Amino acid sequence: MGILDDVVVNAKSAAQTVGKMAGQFVDMSKLRINLSELNGEINRRYQELGQFIYEAKKAGTSDETELDEKIAGLDDLYAQLAAVSAQLAALQNKVTCPCCGKQMEIDATFCSHCGMKLTKDEAPVEEPAAQPEQPAEAPEQAPAEGEEEKTEE
């Protein structure tokens, strides 16, 4: 009886694992369908935007408020697309490069496509890069002072 109990426990464990994987597969499929629909809507909105600009240019008029609304609608769709892509990447245990958008394994430190650092240390790395720019301005001023000295001679 002990062996049969082990078999039943292992079967239950396997069934639970398969159930979880099936649930993840369904979730990923739904997200992929959502991505496809968002991409289709973005393409449709771009066509509308292009037609709107063409007609406005041809008529010699421009309705800036309607143009701004169309652009804001596209921006909203891109924000939704980014959110759905992030959800899909999380389900796939992937991380998306903030620079080029390629997906890598979650434990990747650098993007294999563009080389950007993918860890959380990314933000502090950018701040020191901004600080050397300020001292870089100082040497630009130094030659200007040197030019003044040359004019004095």
Structural account:
With 153 residues, this protein is mainly alpha-helical. The protein folds into 2 domains: 2-119; 120-153. Helix content is 76%, strand content 4%. It has 3 helices and 2 strands; from the N terminus they run H-H-E-E-H. The protein has helices at residues 2-59, 64-91, 122-152, and strands spanning 94-96, 103-105. The chain has a two-stranded antiparallel ribbon with strand order 1-2. A hairpin with a 6-residue loop joins strand 1 (94-96) and strand 2. Helix 1 (2-59) packs antiparallel against helix 2 (64-91). Mean pLDDT is 77; it is low at 121-153.
Summarize the structure.
The protein is mainly α and 153 residues long.
Helix run count: 3
Spatial extent as radius of gyration: 28 Å
| Helix proportion | over 70%
Q: What does the average pLDDT come to?
A: 77
Unreliable spans: 121-153
Question: How many strand units?
Answer: 2
Q: Helix/strand/pairing class, anyone?
A: mainly alpha
